[in-house]
Amino acid sequence: MTSDPLRVAVVIVTYNSADTLGSCLASLPDGLEGVHVTEIVVADNASKDDTCDIAKNSGDLPVRVVEIGRNAGYAAGINAGVASLGPHDAVLVINPDVRVRPGAVALLAKAFDRPRVGIAAPRLENPDGSLQPSLRRPPTVLRAWAEAVIGGNRAGRWGTLGELITDPARYSVPGPATWATGGIQLISAEAFRATGPWDETFLLYGEETDFALRAGRLGYLTWYSPESVFEHDGGESGTNPMLWALLTVNRVRIVRRHYGFLAWLGYSAAVVLGEAIRAAAGRPTAKAALTALLRPSKRLRVLPQ
Asked: Are 116 and 256 contained in the same domain?
């Protein structure tokens, strides 16, 4: 690294994001202070609202729209946006429901001063200023069974039993993480080139896990930087049956791909049990997930257009 400001490109993946994109773009001038912004790309998954018009009329910001032509998913948006970029040192990948706090990107970029860091993740806060847990531990069979029996939130409060790290103390300390929420990441150009494109077959959820694990195998760390703060609205995966089913299936796919057949057997059995328990209690999201887990023909392979 030289003393010159890091050359940062921004890729925002959108789909019917007119309600949030304007505030995201408005936060960028202050949020990107201290880095050299090469360009800002809005990779749009065939929005039917005013998303593209908002992007194209964003004032003095160097925004360019890449229209994908269909609702191809988050990974496809990232890949299309990054493929269109000129020279850059790092790419900031963000959701449109994100606001960048002043100076947050420059603070996040300091993570690359450490050897082997390829992905930098910030502290996420809800709009009310409260912590939004975003760091994960490696998925294991034990953790899957714990979450199935007592629930993910309870498991997260018991030492290291849960995959999601919920201890607020952890979020005040910088350090490596297995993976972090993909809605806000700063990825070095070197790590992106070495790791390759994000896997578009995940559509939504799990693609950031797969990318971080692949990068990790190549020696690139994911580094958490609490001094860099982004505001994030959060998604609908916990309430939308279609999205919860997709998220759940992709969790199991990750284990099969990265941890082997035996781990997949134990992990998938635990996930099926957990969803069955919650489906029996009448939870629509669990019913959808259980159907997708047990009947592969019912799994979502193309997002609604």
From this structure: no
Kindly state whether residues 90 and 217 are assigned to the same domain. yes
Residue located via tokens 């760091």: 135
Tokens of residue 89, six digits: 């040192």
Give dist(CA 68, CA 140) in Å, integer: 36
Residue 260, domain member (yes or no): yes
Residue type, 217: R
pLDDT tens over the chain, length 305 residues = 446 889 999 999 999 999 999 999 999 999 999 999 999 999 999 999 999 999 999 988 999 999 999 999 999 999 999 999 999 999 999 999 999 999 999 999 999 999 999 999 999 999 999 999 999 999 999 999 999 999 887 888 888 899 999 999 999 999 999 999 989 999 999 999 999 999 999 999 999 999 999 999 999 999 999 999 999 997 777 789 999 999 999 999 999 999 999 999 999 999 999 999 999 999 999 999 999 999 999 999 999 88
CA separation for the pair 297, 122 (Å, rounded): 38
61 and 117 in a single domain? The answer is: yes
Whether residue 70 is contained in a domain is answered as yes
pTM over 0.85, yes/no? yes
- Domain carrying residue 275: 241-297
Q: Check if the beta carbon of residue 247 is closer than 8 Å to that of residue 163.
A: no
Residue 111 burial by Cβ neighbours in a 10 Å radius (0-12, 13-18, 19+): buried
Q: What is the sign, positive or negative, of the torsion defined by CA atoms of 245, 246, 247, 252?
A: positive
* Helices and strands, counts by H and E, the chain: 11, 11
Could you give the CA distance from residue 265 to residue 269 in angstroms, rounded to a whole number? 6
Q: How many angstroms separate the CA atoms of 225 and 231, rounded? A: 14
Q: Is residue 166 part of a domain?
A: no
